[in-house]
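Question (not urgent): is this output format expected?
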Amino acid sequence: MSPQPSGLARWAAVVVNYESGELLAACVQSLLEDTSAGAPEVVVVDNGSTDGSVAALLRAAPDTRVITAENRGYASAANLGTAATSAPIVAVCNCDLRVERGTAGAVLARFDDEPDLGAVGPTVRNPDGTRYPSARAIPKVGDAVGHGLFGLFKPDNRFTRRYRELDADPTLPRDVGFVSGAAIWLRRAALDAIDGWDAGYFMYVEDVDLCWRLRQHGWRVAYEPGGEVVHVQGASTRHHPYRMLVAHHRSLFRFAAKRWHGWRRILLVPTAGFLVLRTGLAAGAHALRRGHARPSSLTPTG
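Got this back:
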């Protein structure tokens, strides 16, 4: 199956790739097979992979458009891919996920019915079938600190439960603070209104920032359980786990600096110290888990 010619599709998909191996071709194929909202435009932005993932993709789907980019991070690649498409709805996806058939139809129905909807995230499942808490709140300071400390070792703590919205019914649609950038459908008009993704983030928290800015501009962000993706997690970041931990915490600081104004900027000093501490704790927690069959994916929002 070949991608829909530009200008004819109702939706587009941008896949950001880095060293994902055979997972890239599987991801693109799943997107092409989801014709529930018509065939999509598909663009892959490759951030300098050397593992043969792009060559494998082009053998499987030779008509796929691939943009080769200097690795400036996920947000920068998302902007490049979005600019290369023209559909009114654009999905930005990690390279290590599989989109289930019917997802595009469920998501685009929401956009059609709700003109103030700027972003939608589907159900995200782990490979073992369990749900990943992909629809979350923008945390208040207390919940952010509590989750940051206790979430590493006791993920069922009350701070993490509030932040991850673990007590919400995952079978029901709802408005949320943000949805995971691993698979996020965006209204192009809303994205244009906020000048796209903030390319100042190299990895992590760019999805939080994006949804936060959409909501600041009057757009809603929603979770839609009628769509579903399966996410391997960590396929790209596993190559440099400790570097990614540092990138994660730098991104957290960037978001705090953007979010806090006036007297609240005083909090940036203790925040910097806290994030340095948490980087060390997270590195230690990862080292303890390395021998397990399923290693930590080092996802930014935990």
